[in-house]
Amino acid sequence: MEMAKQEIRIGVYVCHCGLNIAGSVDCEEVAKFAASLPNVVLAKDYRYTCSDQGQELIKKDIRENRLNRVVVASCTPRLHEPTFRKVCEEAGLNKYLFEMANIREQCSWVHLHDREAATEKAKDLVKMAVAKAALLAPAEEIEVPIIRKALVIGGGVAGIQVALDLADTGYKVYLVEKQPSIGGMMARIDKTFPTMDCSICILAPKMSDVGHHPNIELLANSEVIDVKGYIGNFHVKVLKKPRYVKEDCTACGDCSKVCPITAPNEFDAGLALRHAIYTPFAQAVPSTYIIDMNLCLNKDEIMVCDKCIKACERQAIDFTMKPETVELEVGTIIVATGTDVFDPSTLPNYGYGKYLNVITSLEFERLINAGGPSGGRLIRPSDMKIPKRVAFIQCVGSRSNKSGRTYCSNVCCMNTIKDSLLIKEHWPETEIYVFYVDIRAYGKGFEDLYKRAKNERAIFIRGLPAEIIEDPKTRNLWLIGENTLLKEPYKLNFDLVILSVGLEPRKDSEIIQRLLTLSRTQDGFFMEAHPKLRPVDAATGGIFFAGCAEAPKDIKDSVTQASAAAARAGILMAKGKVTVEAITPVLDVEKCKACGLCTKVCPYNAITLNKELKRVEIVEAACGGCGTCAAECPSDALTQSHFTDEQIMAQIDAVTEHDAEKKIVAFCCNWCAYAGADFAGVSRMQYPPNVRIIRTMCSGRVAPKFVERAFARGAAAVLVAGCHPGDCHYINANYQTQKRVERLWRKMEQNGLDKERLQLLWVTAAEGERFASKIREMQKLIEKVTMEEIELAKRVFAKAGGA
Amino acid sequence: MPERHWRTPLDAEKAVRPKAEIHIIKDQCKGCGFCIQYCPKKVLEESDEINARGVHPPRVVDEKECIICSFCTAVCPDFAIFVKEKQCKDGC
User: Fold this and answer.
1) Which of A159, A197, A769, B57 is deepest in the core (most CB within 10 A)?
2) How many CA atoms lie within 13 A of A41 on its CB side?
3) Residue A270 to residue B5, Cβ atoms within 8 A
4) Which residues from B are below 8 Å from A when comparing CB atoms?
């Protein structure tokens, strides 16, 4: 408020960027124009504004000319906004009093051959920035303390590695595992590729370390049921299900021997039996036995059978145990929930579930494992004989529209190569055929292993079998298909067929997704904040990914990612505090009618309705800064700092002041659409110069009144552009964008307006051409828009737009 | 666990289960039916015959299913039922 009373003194710097800008924009003229704008006290053009000299110039001007706003017209704010914000701060000016006009990526580079139009556009862009700058307010970033404890969800190899790394760094770690033991998929595998290490032999010591680490609290047989809070301050509820066996258990196994109930052991893929009281495998951590209450005879507190109790010398069995809810306070959460395997019985042509001698690669792992149900003998389930001819079928549940899994599962090629070598090692005479689509041996040491398998005479045939037919007498299997390299059909007979099944997202991913407000890719795996530069961060602050939860990957990659996630979480916890960018919403308590609409659209659950006080409450630390709440608020009670209604309206007004009927007003989200437009610039894709881009953090910030204002001021067309649905940087805020645009379309149609004048575009940061062609397409559209139509739109939206 | 377990486990035959020998003292039974109701493996059912006390005593449906938990003995108010483990030398 104090600032508003103060005289506004804006300094404008128009950067030449060598010839990058000056090559197609008359920078001197733009600077002269800028000097004529209201509140501008000085305007200069400079060769390289980001250079040390350029920075010093700005600092000197701030001090000497008492500038209290700075506008730099140069490259994209995604590149140098932090640089210039720092310059302002160093000269004693709040960094939120800086604004940027993007006249390189979104002007000079995309209009290389039209100097006049590019210069005019640059002027407009500077005018918009100056208009916004006049309304900027200083802001302080709030600091949030971070609890120096971490929660790791999932105790596979990734979760184990994260827990150990963080615990060794000195942080308290809670490791929650749904199963009775940690170990995950890796514990079930016989050998690992490409080194052929024994899987459990290298994993068991790590599991044991987890069990004994003073900084790790292991909550096995437990599930996360509730997560509240935000980065640095999560309040987590974990349901600890009873084991019915106390920690006094020495894992002697006497109880199991006398237990009269048996069922297939899940750990052994159902190939071996276990009892109702059991341990899933010998190396289990915790080693304490567990009673499966779905099987045990003692139900509803009626003690029918007490054989285990009698057999237990330590008197460790306790049927009175009850489920308990453990409440945890943690600063960071690492999601390492792992993966499921594809169920091939959904593909009837391979006969899995019908033909005994068709097995999955996971069943193979248990059969070839010396500690497994067959003692390491690879047997045909039909007659327990060792097979002489074995076939592997690749891509079962991967890279196929038929199975509904279109992605590559990443590990199956190498797993099969490893398995074929294992068979050759034990039974060198076995004939092995691998039916594949492509063999992907892309990693360190992978190609060598592939070559070894070929040298050992494993035969690789390109072309998956169309069908498997069983010989009912011998239970042998006929594989029928086409060798696509030879263009010849094949019909081959095998004793045993192994389906190399793909990996798929956990069936219960949705629960974790909802609890932690995460987003998932189309494939269903969790989505990282940035695929290249933030590969283990979730979009939600303080949450990280490790292992197959993020995408299918092998053990090495899982461990690498786990250590990366531990480092990322460690950085936050080491700092002990985090600053939140001051772009969070501000509530006008007087205006709030407690309708609660904002609470429904907030992707982060950062706004809650206080029914008693009849208003909403904002948790700034939980806020992601998308601004969709401000767009939703019907009573203007919420406004997003640094992207206020006033500021955005001022930008719209600046664009539409002159020649509005020839212009496209575009609203682009910072992460995808604006970046996509930048990418078009970097790639020098040329498009018509009539578009003026207004940057918002998310397309969800674009309130209908912004669009209406643009039309009310005579704009020819409006473009709203954001991330593809499902890719939103703010989880799902762009679904609100879609709803709002659809409402506007209806309104336009009802009032006899051509709804084509409002366009909605989903564009990723990599889709520069998509953005450029949309502008070309819209250029054709606006050329056809008549003055009558412009006037009609002005009248229709005059009231709502408030122009 | 999303994986389907449809095969007979390889060690299914090797799993030794104690063989039961169920003894019912029919004429001592007063027909309360507790043993039938509480047997976790549903090994017993009511028979058609009428005993000395004029009620239907229980009858064994499938002795192989019995796991010798002896809960029937525990709940029988009249000490009319007990189970012994068949010794293999007796030819089981």
Assistant:
1) A159
2) 15
3) yes
4) 1-7, 9-12, 15, 17-18, 38, 40-41, 67-69, 71
**Interface touch B4/A302, C-beta < 8 Å:** no
The answer to whether residue A302 neighbours chain B at the CB level (below 8 Å) is yes
Q: What is the mean pLDDT of chain A?
A: 94
| Strand boundaries in B12-76, DSSP class E | 20-24, 44-46, 58-60
Judge whether A384 is closer than 8 Å to chain B, CB to CB.
yes
Position B30 in a domain? yes
- Of A202, A220, A234, A215, the residue nearest A162 (C-alpha): A215
Q: What is the DSSP letter of A107?
A: I
Mean pLDDT of A511-540: 86
Indicate whether this complex's ipTM tops 0.90: no
Distance CA A255, CA A277 (A): 7
Fold adopted by A343-502 = FAD/NAD(P)-binding domain (3.50.50)
Q: Which residues of B touch A305 (CB under 8 A)?
A: 40, 67, 69, 71
Q: Which residues of A touch B1 (CB under 8 A)?
A: 266
A-chain CB neighbours of B17 within 8 Å are 260
Measured CA to CA, the distance from residue A459 to residue A431 in angstroms comes to 8
DSSP, collapsed to helix, strand or coil, labels residue A163 as: helix
Asked if B5 lies within 8 A of A345 by C-beta distance, the reply is no
What separation in angstroms does the CA of A798 have from each of A552, A712, A787, A803? 54, 5, 16, 6
Question: For residue range A34-57, what is the model confidence (pLDDT) as tens digits?
Answer: 999 999 999 999 999 999 999 999
Has residue B28 got a pLDDT over 50? yes
- Separation of alpha carbons B81 and B24, rounded Å: 5
Chain A residues in contact with B15 (beta carbon < 8 A): 262, 273
Contact A620, A648 (CB under 8 A): no
State yes or no: pLDDT of A2 exceeds 80: no
- Judge whether A142-241+324-338+506-578 and A343-502 match in fold: yes
Residue B58 lies in a domain: yes
Of B7, B41, B68, the CB nearest to A270: B7
Residue B72 belongs to domain with CATH number: 3.30.70.20
Distance CA A202, CA A191 (A): 10
| CATH assignment, A142-241+324-338+506-578 | 3.50.50.60
Least CA distance to B19: which residue of chain A? A260
Nearest C-alpha neighbor of A332 from the set A469, A223, A236, A449 = A236
Contacts of A353 in chain B (CB under 8 A): 4, 6
Domain membership flag for residue B75:
yes
**Domain A643-803 CATH class label:** alpha beta
Fold type of domain A580-622 = Alpha-Beta Plaits (3.30.70)
Please check whether residue A237 is in contact with residue A326, taking contact to mean a CB–CB distance below 8 angstroms. Answer: yes
- Whole-model pTM: value is 0.81
Nearest-CB residue to B9 (from A261, A272, A341): A272
Helical (H) or strand (E) element with A717: strand A717-722
Q: A49-53, A729-733, A779-783: which has the minimum mean pLDDT?
A: A729-733
The domain locations on chain A are 1-141, 142-241+324-338+506-578, 242-322, 343-502, 580-622, 643-803
Q: How far is A244 from chain B (nearest CA, A)?
A: 19
Query: Residues A666-722: pLDDT tens digits?
Result: 999 998 899 999 999 999 999 999 999 999 999 999 999 999 999 999 999 999 999
Instruction: Using CB atoms within 10 Å of the CB of residue A560, give its burial: 0 to 12 exposed, 13 to 18 middle, 19+ buried.
Output: middle
CATH topology of domain A1-141: Rossmann fold (3.40.50)
Give the pLDDT band of residue A539 (cuts 50, 70, 90): confident
List of chain A residues whose C-beta atoms are within 8 Å of the C-beta of residue B41: 297
Give dist(CA A493, CA B72) in Å, integer.
55
